[in-house]
Every structure is written in structure tokens, then in C-alpha cells.
Design brief:
Shape: rod-shaped
Helix content: 40-55%
Oligomer: single chain
Distance between the termini: 53 Å
Number of helices: 9
CATH topology of the largest domain: Beta-Lactamase
Strand order of the largest sheet: 2-1-5-4-3
CATH class of the largest domain: Alpha Beta
Strand content: 15-25%
CATH architecture of the largest domain: 2-Layer Sandwich
Number of domains: 3
Largest sheet: 5 strands, antiparallel
Length: about 475
């Protein structure tokens, strides 16, 4: 999922939807904030207004009775007056002297009045220390619904004479109902806007990405061997038009590259064929030279078997000359290398003839049977064995005596041929490359020998494998299936 890629249409569509949703959430958040902010301001102003009304009423009565300093002495007579103020203004309040002893509780009946219900000393100290001589305390258990104010009352001489406790209960039932109604309507509007936004986003994303989809489809059909067509889009945006022009310019460059590539491929094909033909012709020449030199060295006119040796020598030379002749004929006819001529041949005999052209005593040849008849192409098999034996000899370092073993073993369902050398072996970095064309570790040669061998064995529906150990040697194993 980490690597999953989303289309441009998908991104445009969901970006627009996300924009609408985020905008709706921000507006709802702002609405809630504004509502609660206004509600708090309203209740604070209402608290101050009610508190001021009670203060003014108390000041008026006490000033009229000239009783600012005699409240405590005349407390019973003032109780009904204080209670009437609570009824007139429809509020609850309490009065304390400056030491915190209560004068009056509007929410406590006179018969239940207790002088010991004093004002909290912490609140009194905070009140007297405040600049305005007024503090507001929020009820922690009912936050936002109940708060109370404490304020010092002053007489007409500016002297404090009492402390007013004014509890305020917020009535949020109406405002909550109004808010819920507003939110329901707002939700309906936003839901409708979301539906409209989805429809608009779908068409806008489709419109924006349609030219890109056209370009993508045309690019998918672009290829070296395909009939490429240029793109023409009307009313395209600046970016899309630039992209189309770049694509059309690329097609022009591609057509030129195709022509150059075709010319280069033809030249390369001829070069490869020339290399392969040269390799096939050159491959028998070295063994032929060695055979002639060996024959010259071993030639003895008085040898009683000289006639047979001449016949064998001539037969080997004719086989190699015929191979080169067929290769040259195929090349001259602009064809591939000789077609296979599968016939029942004695594999032991043909392999022996291939071995005889190399220096004697280097190659040790053995077979499970003296004669093994198998369906192969005689010329092709000589090329296969010549390539493998020559590679085996060349794999042996100069300071080591070459020992090459060739063994043929016939099984019920397949024929097995092993070519073993005591050479340097194949390094680990080259293990996967030895059958690749043009790969070679020699200073000379073109690296086609083992590639040709593998292709030739594949054409016989066989397999070639190898086992190697560095500085000890390599064993190539050929298996040919029994042909029906």
C-alpha cells in the first residue's frame, strides 16, 4: 500500500471533496465558538446588570433609612425589606458584614437562618485584595451553568458597609434549542452542498484529465514497430498543449531513430553472421593443422598400416573440409548455417574422429558400448565436439599437462556424454555468462563457441550442463533424449 499510486483524476476529485468538507468543519467550529463566546458575554452582562440593580436598590433603601451602619442592629426589621428586593428582581442574593458574618440569605427562611454560615475566608481575602473589590467565581461542578459574584458595597461616604453575594444560574435551554435548530439547518445545507460538490468535482476532474487520458492511450500504442500517430487536441490548456508538442516532437525523433536502428540492425546482423561464419570456418583449421603436423611426424613409409592411416587421415580432412564448405555455401546463399540432417549415426565413431584431429595422448576416450547408434546431425556433432575439446584444451594453464577425458554412456531413455578437463575452472563471477554470445576470457576469439554449442544441442532437443571447481577443472555433460 505504501507504493500505491493514485491517478490525477482521483486526486483532483477527492481534493475538491476534501476542500468542501474541511470548509464545512471550519465553519461549524467557528459557529460553535461564536455561539459559546456570545453566550458567555451575554450571561456576564446579565449577571452584572442584575447585580447592579440589586446594589442600587439596597443603596436606595439604606440611604433612605440612613441605616448603612445599623444593619446588624436592625437585622430583623430589614429582613422583609431585603426579601422584597429578591422578589422584585426575581433573583437570589446574600449579604455579609465585612468580617463575613451573614446579614441575610434570600434562599434561606428566617426561621432557618444560621449566623454561623460565614463567608469563606479565602473568598473574602481575594475580594478585599482585588482592585475593583469584586470577583466572579465559577462553579467547578457545573461549569458554564452556575457562577456567582462577590462585591463590596459602599455607602454615600465611600465607606464599605457590606459584602454582596450574588449567585447566577444560566438558563441555556432556549439557546441550546436554538443552536440545535440552527445546526440541523446548517447540516442540511452542507449535505446539499456536498452532493453538488461531488457532482461538480466528478465533471471537473473528468474534464481536466480527459486530454491526459488521450495522451496516455496514444503513448501506450507508441512503439518502434507500430504505426505511430501524432496527437492533436483542440482547446487544450497551456500545460497539455506543451505536453502534446513534446510528444509530437518525440515521434519525429523516434522515426529518425527507427530508421537509424533498422540500418544499424541490418549491419549488426551481417556482422554477427560474418563472425559466426568466420568462427565456424576457423574452428576446424587449427585441428586440421595439428592433424597434418602429427601425420607428418608419425609418417613412416615402411609402416605396414600406412595405407590405413592415410585413409583415416584423408577421411578426417574431408570431414572438416565438407563442414567448411557447407558453411561457406550457406553464407553465399544468404541463408543461415546448414540445416540439420538428422540421421542414425554411430556417435562413438564420429566422436572418435573428432578426437583424432587433436594431439594424441592428451584426450582419453571411453564408451559404455563400442557402437551407439543415435539420431544426430553428423556435421553438427563434429562441430559440437570440436568446440568443446578445443575449449577444454585451452582451459588448461601452460604450466600444467593437459588431461582431457571424454566418456559416452548409453541409458534407456537418453545418451550421456561427459567432457572433463583439468583446467583452471570457471570463476564464480563468470558462471552465469559462459553460454552468452560474445563472452570470452581469452585474449583471442569472439566468444561464440559455447553459445553455438548450446544452440546446436538445443536443436537436438538435448541439454548441456557443467560442474566446475576453480584450479581443478570443469566437467561438461551433454544429455540427448531418445528420439521416437
Amino acid at each position: 500500500m505504501a507504493n500505491r499510486k493514485f491517478s490525477l483524476r482521483f486526486r483532483v476529485f477527492y481534493s475538491m471533496i476534501l476542500l468542501v468538507v474541511m470548509t464545512s468543519i471550519l465553519i461549524l467550529g467557528a459557529t460553535f465558538y461564536q455561539y459559546y463566546s456570545q453566550s458567555d458575554d451575554y450571561n456576564l452582562r446579565r449577571l452584572e446588570r442584575k447585580e447592579t440593580q440589586v446594589k442600587n436598590h439596597l443603596s436606595y433603601i439604606l440611604d433612605r433609612e440612613n441605616a448603612f451602619n445599623s444593619i446588624e442592629e436592625n437585622q430583623p426589621s430589614f429582613y422583609e425589606t431585603f426579601e422584597s428586593i429578591a422578589l422584585i428582581h426575581k433573583v437570589e442574593y446574600a449579604l455579609f458584614n465585612m468580617e463575613g458574618t451573614p446579614y441575610f440569605y434570600s434562599y434561606v427562611k428566617s426561621k432557618n437562618f444560621d449566623q454561623d454560615q460565614k463567608l469563606d475566608s479565602n473568598i473574602r481575602d481575594k475580594l478585599l485584595e482585588s482592585n475593583r473589590k469584586r470577583i466572579v467565581v465559577q462553579n467547578e461542578e457545573e461549569r458554564g451553568r452556575f457562577q456567582s459574584s462577590y462585591s463590596v458595597l459602599f455607602d454615600d461616604q465611600g465607606q464599605p458597609y457590606a459584602i454582596l453575594y450574588f449567585p447566577y444560574f444560566e438558563d441555556v435551554s432556549f439557546s441550546s434549542t436554538e443552536l440545535n435548530t440552527f445546526l440541523i439547518r446548517l447540516f442540511q445545507i452542507y449535505f446539499f452542498m456536498l452532493i453538488v460538490a461531488i457532482i461538480i468535482a466528478y465533471f471537473i476532474s473528468s474534464y481536466m484529465t480527459r486530454p491526459l487520458e488521450t495522451i496516455r492511450a496514444r503513448i501506450d500504442r507508441t512503439g518502434l514497430l507500430k504505426g505511430n500517430e501524432k496527437i492533436y487536441i483542440s482547446n487544450a490548456s497551456k500545460e497539455v498543449d506543451s505536453l502534446v508538442n513534446s510528444y509530437n516532437s518525440m515521434l519525429d525523433a523516434l522515426e529518425e531513430s527507427i530508421a537509424k536502428l533498422a540500418r544499424s540492425e541490418r549491419e549488426q546482423a551481417w556482422q554477427e553472421m560474418a563472425k559466426q561464419v568466420a568462427h565456424e570456418i576457423k574452428n576446424p583449421l587449427t585441428p586440421m593443422r595439428l592433424t597434418i603436423q602429427s601425420f607428418q611426424q608419425r609418417f613412416d613409409p615402411n609402416d605396414p598400416k600406412i595405407n590405413q592411416k592415410v585413409i583415416d587421415f584423408s577421411k578426417i580432412m574431408i570431414e572438416q573440409i565438407d563442414t567448411m564448405s557447407e558453411v561457406a555455401t550457406a553464407f553465399s546463399n544468404f541463408a543461415t548455417l546448414p540445416k540439420l540432417k538428422i540421421e542414425a549415426e554411430d556417435v562413438v565413431e564420429i566422436t572418435g574422429l573428432s578426437i583424432d584431429i587433436f594431439e594424441p595422448k592428451i584426450i582419453q576416450f571411453s564408451s559404455s558400448e563400442k557402437e551407439i547408434i543415435w539420431n544426430i546431425d553428423r556435421t553438427q556433432w563434429i562441430r559440437i565436439m570440436t568446440n568443446l575439446l578445443q575449449n577444454a584444451i585451452q582451459a588448461v594453464p601452460q604450466d600444467r599437462e593437459p588431461i582431457i577425458r571424454v566418456h559416452i554412456e548409453k541409458h534407456t531413455e537418453f545418451l550421456k556424454i561427459e567432457i572433463q578437463d583439468n583446467g583452471s575452472g570457471i570463476s564464480e563471477e563468470n558462471i552465469t555468462k559462459i553460454f552468452e554470445p560474445k563472452f570470452t576470457t581469452k585474449t583471442g576469439g569472439m566468444g561464440l563457441g559455447l553459445a553455438i554449442v548450446k544452440n546446436s544441442i538445443n536443436s537436438l532437443e538435448g541439454t548441456i550442463t557443467y560442474e566446475t571447481e576453480e584450479n581443478k577443472g570443469t566437467i561438461f555433460t551433454i544429455q540427448l533424449k531418445k528420439q521416437k
